[in-house]
Amino acid sequence: MTQASIEDLHEEYDFLDADDRYRLLIDLGRALDPMPDALKTDATLVRGCSAAVWVYPTVLDDGRLHFLADSNAAITKGIIALVLMTVQDHAPAEISATNIEGALAPFDLRNQLSSNRTQGIPNMIALIRQTADRYKD
């Protein structure tokens, strides 16, 4: 997904009440590519999240990274889907340079959701950046 699509999503998000924002996040999570259970291992687990979150990178033929992700909590799955919207199918160097926090800032997740739901976001972002750094040329 492109940066424009996250901006479009934010415009929609701004007009929603709290319940509809939750539904939007849940829908984002449902739209993620399915992650096989075999990939949900200790190695793919994001540390520091109140819910279990797994992120697994795949390398496309042209070297771009496509992430598979899942969570055992619907809202958290939506949060990782939102994070991935900023970097999905981009080159590793582009992912490393992306201001993921800046792209997410307009959603004001820390004030919209409980601290339990948002505490793992920095760890999700760190794992994605570390992964991109490993795959950079």
Jot down its keywords.
137 residues; 2 strands; two-stranded antiparallel sheet; mainly alpha; single chain; 8 helices
Q: What level of helicity do the residues show? A: 40-55%
Element order: H for helix, E for strand = HHEEHHHHHH
Radius of gyration: 14 Å
Mean pLDDT rating:
92
Distance between the termini: 23 Å
Number of DSSP strand runs = 2
Main sheet summary: 2 strands, antiparallel
Strand order of the largest sheet: 1-2
**Low-confidence blocks of residues:** none
Q: Helical region count?
A: 8
The portion of residues forming beta strands comes to 5-15%
* Helix/sheet category: mainly alpha
Shape: globular
Protein model, in words:
There is one protein chain. The chain is mainly alpha-helical and 137 residues long. The chain contains 8 helices and 2 strands; from the N terminus they run H-H-E-E-H-H-H-H-H-H. The chain has helices spanning 3-14, 18-30, 74-85, 92-97, 100-104, 109-112, 115-118, 121-135, and strands at residues 53-59, 65-71. A two-stranded antiparallel ribbon has the order 1-2. The longest helix is centred in the last third of the chain and has 15 residues, at 121-135. The chain is globular, with a radius of gyration of 14 Å. The model has no long low-confidence stretch (mean pLDDT 92).
